[in-house]
Design brief:
9 helices; 2 domains; OB fold (Dihydrolipoamide Acetyltransferase, E2P); alpha/beta; Rossmann fold; 282 residues
């Protein structure tokens, strides 16, 4: 009778859920986090903040998910048609049986080395303690004089001046002009910060508009980070858009998501203060 027992019994019948679970485990276990290059298409931004898109090249495509907590840390705003490099984990969305990539981070193609330099410097300065929260200086509640370090031609300067004129027209403002992009800009930014902190001001706004990692690179230089920490005046960094992060943001006493937001943080709303005084008087 033993001769009639098959030596290789057929496998158990799997449910679809069991099959997809096995495939997902095999995918994630055999292919570690990997950099994949391609073009973004079919990008959608969910109300939750998650990003869903397709990464494609001339011969294939794959669906991708970038969760909100990861998307908030990107140094640029993803758009359709951009060539990018995604650090991602291949997986299977079991409920639909869809193969996809769970993206950890994105960088613009061709800018990988710059991004690596950014991460290396950030890690080194963080280890040194340059970004420690207990070293951050508090902003004055009622500043009288504000220094602005930026380019006179920057659109960000107009935004800051317009906001301050609306909220706090009583403030005295001094501009410390400096290039904010290109070769040699970082030492000049550091020199302007140094000059501003030795004058009679209450705080400093460092600002410029958004751009690519190359456009903002002057704010990723070590000399600027050290000038920020050497200042005895508190500094607000309003560099780029909300999704742009630079070394200056971490070194400054306060990061504002935009130049306009930096002005709002620096200057108390005069009308609100007058309304409060009238209320107290009543």
């Amino acid at each position: 009778m033993l001769d009639n027992v098959p030596k290789n019994p057929p496998p158990a019948i799997l449910s679809v859920s069991e099959l997809n679970q096995i495939v997902r485990t095999l995918l994630e276990g055999s292919l570690p986090l990997t950099w994949i290059r391609g073009e973004i298409s079919n990008l959608s931004r969910a109300a939750s903040g998650h990003l869903y898109f397709t990464l494609k090249d001339a011969g294939a495509q794959v669906r991708c998910t970038l969760w909100r907590n990861k998307a908030q840390l990107l140094g640029f705003r993803p758009e359709n048609g951009q060539k990018v490099e995604a650090r991602a984990l291949a997986t299977l969305y079991e409920a639909r049986g869809d193969y996809q990539l769970n993206v950890e981070t994105l960088r613009q193609a061709g800018q990988g080395r710059l991004f690596e330099r950014f991460l290396e410097l950030k890690a080194r300065l963080e280890t040194e303690g340059l970004f420690r929260s207990d070293q951050k200086r508090a902003l004055p509640a009622f500043p009288r004089r504000i220094a602005i370090v930026t380019s006179p031609q920057a659109a960000a300067l107009r935004d800051v001046l317009t906001t301050l004129a609306r909220r706090a027209p009583h403030l005295a403002i001094t501009l410390y002009p400096t290039p904010v992009q290109g070769e040699g800009a970082a030492p000049q930014i550091a020199a302007a910060l140094n000059a501003a902190q030795h004058a009679d001001h209450d705080l400093i706004i460092l600002c410029r508009g958004g751009g690519s990692i190359e456009d903002l690179w002057a704010f990723n230089e070590e000399i600027v980070a050290r000038a920020l920490r050497a200042s005895h005046l508190p500094v607000i960094s309003g560099v780029g858009h909300e999704t742009d992060f630079t070394i200056a943001d971490f070194a400054a006493d306060l990061r504002a998501p935009t130049p306009t937001a930096a002005a709002e943080l620096a200057g108390p709303d005069r009308n609100a203060l007058l309304d409060r005084l009238a209320e107290l008087q009543r």
